[in-house]
Amino acid sequence: MTITDFAGRRTFLKLGAAGAGALAMPGILRAQDKPSEIIVRAWGGAWGDALKEGVADPFTAATGIPVRLDFTEDNEIKPKIWAAVDQGRIPPIHVNWDTTTNATISALRGVTVDLSDLSNLDGLLPLAKPTGLDGYPLVNTYAYVYVCAYRPEAFPDGAPDSWTVMLDPKFKGRVALYDDGIGFNPIAVIAGGGTFEDIPGNMEPGYEFYRKLKENAPLLGEDADFTTWFQNGEIDLACTISVNARAARQSGIDVEWTVPKEGCKVDTDGLWVPRGLPANEEHWAREFVNFALSREAQEKWCSLLGLPPVYPGIAPPADLVGDPSYPTKPEDFARLVSVPSPVLVENQPIWFAKFNEIFQG
Amino acid sequence: MKYPLSWRLLDGLEAAAAVLWPARLRRLTAWGLLAPALVLVGVLVIGLGYMLEYSLHELDLATYRLTEAYSLTNYQTILDRPVYARVLGRTLLGAVLVTAIAVALAFPYAYALVRTRSAALRKALLVALFLPFFIGQVVRAYGWLIVLGREGLVNSALAGMGLPTVDLLFTYPAVIFGLVQYMLPFAILLLVPALAAIPEDMELASESLGARWISTFRHVVIPMAKPGLIGASVVVFTLTLTDFAMPEILGGGTSDFIASAIYDSFFQISNPGLGAALSMVLVTLGSLIVAGVFLVAGTGTLGVRGAK
């Protein structure tokens, strides 16, 4: 007589599964031990405030795990995580809030955890899926637009309708771009007389636009610089992410923004979890990402940022209804310029070198 | 006979020292004292070794890792892209200008600090000298943004006088200005001991022999202050050569120094090989220039005993 004769095959299988589960339980439970905190790298200012209010605080309320935001510059945390993973050390953060381009680079390097099994991925917009990569080594969380932000006082006839206004000698020394050309490289090609199809094969129209722009002595900086420069009346015009322009306006600075006829670059940010975390910390880091993709978190977080989320059917904030920087319909996206991440990853270093050569020369 | 307590304590300490560091090891005392510094320098040399190693590997854009194979590609890239030569030239020119201006401004300050008979003035000069050290470089740079900005103190004063406002920020001169202000205290601190070491009697003797003040200054003070001048110049030059914050903040993104290019390579474009190669070029160039200065001036000018 065998044991299956005694208990029945199905019962035996159930008992076997229960037994195996019981044996594995301590491991599973250990994997779910709550860490003392979850560290999330974030951008500061309006960005960090939105993440805290929209995701971190509700996550803490739901799980009891405090979330600490680490404001290390995104480009500076990257080599620290890479080194930690390569050397078998525990990475300095649990979740990285990153640009999709940078996150893709980290994924190519093999330092990210696959997030394919997150329950909240179901039903998200296709935008959430990273392109050119297997699975979900990162998950995109919203789209954002590099708008043309301007001081209305400097444009009494209304919003500028073309990026070529940057070349107007009237604005010499009063135009600003990101210091690595990010957000403007494809637009420079179109504003310089090229077409979207020229990217990345023929960037020369863009470089020519930059050469002309250099004569107008533009300022080159980061997010925080743009706010300061607008606040201090140093600039009249900037290519910056709509979040910064909106935050500046919300803090009383007289700034408006528009999408000129050449379009604006649209991009995405995402979240990823580095490899090498202890099992329980990785589990809760993934839970944090999963929570950030829930309707509740997406609605609050993206509404505070003023950006279209990857969760479908969420209405834009009242002040951004119909705003071209908040694309919701296909025709909205048609006015914007989207360069696939693999193209950005492959070409960003080349574009950056050329951008530097022109503006530092 | 009963010895005072302090004597007995010292005897005890001496006995303990004799156990811990026996007489036969005394000839190694100097090396023992030097050991921490040697360890620090050793760590630096090991770090430089790693940098050199990194600089000899090209970045593979498919994996964003340095390739295994050794090559001079990164150095070739530096030579091929004229932007690096221009940024390096701008950095070198900046370092020379800042050194010349800072040392020239520091000299009268240090001289006044050493020679003044007024204790109040000396204290005021000392406070003004040390105060900037309590304020970090970044904070000072942001201070200049407020003072020199379009709606800052200077332009407000100009507008108040009915004069047109001027763009003072985000230019190369603004970077030089910020760096001079930052380096001035270092230069003064290095000049003060050298000037204090010049006996005032020497100047009096020169003047009593009929030399005018300017001759005394030229033929007595300056030559005797040479150790301080060389030391201050070397320190200010090397600090400026590697400075990052002032060009970043006051340069408006178009007056970068080589440190910014190194930062960009490491962090912006994730190419540690190129960043390491640029670092090696900077270290080599800086070392050659400082070695050249010592070769011409002699290390003896720094007051190093026995040196030429």
For the structure shown, list the relevant keywords.
heterodimer, A: 361 residues, alpha/beta, D-Maltodextrin-Binding Protein, domain 2, 2 domains, ten-stranded mixed β-sheet, 13 helices, 10 strands, 43% helix, disordered N terminus, B: 308 residues, mainly alpha, MetI-like fold, two-stranded antiparallel sheet, 14 helices, 2 strands, globular
What does this structure look like?
The complex is a heterodimer of chains A (about 350) and B (about 300). Chain A has 13 helices and ten strands. Helices cover about 45% and strands about 15% of the residues of chain A. Chain A has two domains: about 35-145 and about 270-320, D-Maltodextrin-Binding Protein, domain 2 (3-Layer(aba) Sandwich); about 145-265 and about 340-360, Periplasmic binding protein-like II (D-Maltodextrin-Binding Protein, domain 2). In chain B, a hairpin with a 4-residue loop joins strand 1 and strand 2 (about 65). The mean pLDDT of chain B is about 95. Chain B is mainly α and about 300 residues long. Chain B contains 14 helices and two strands; from the N terminus they run ααββαααααααααααα. The chains are: A alpha/beta (about 350), B mainly alpha (about 300).
Strand portion of chain B: under 5%
* Portion in helices of chain B: over 70%
Question: What is the C-level CATH assignment of chain B?
Answer: Mainly Alpha
In whole angstroms, the N-to-C terminal distance of chain B is 53 Å
Largest beta-sheet characterization of chain A: 10 strands, mixed
Named CATH architecture of chain B: Orthogonal Bundle
Q: Give helix % range of chain A.
A: 40-55%
Q: What amount of the residues of chain A lies in strands?
A: 5-15%
Unreliable residue stretches of chain B:
none
Give a brief description:
The complex is a heterodimer of chains A (361) and B (308). By secondary structure, chain A is α/β, with parallel strands linked by helices. Chain A is 43% helix and 14% strand.
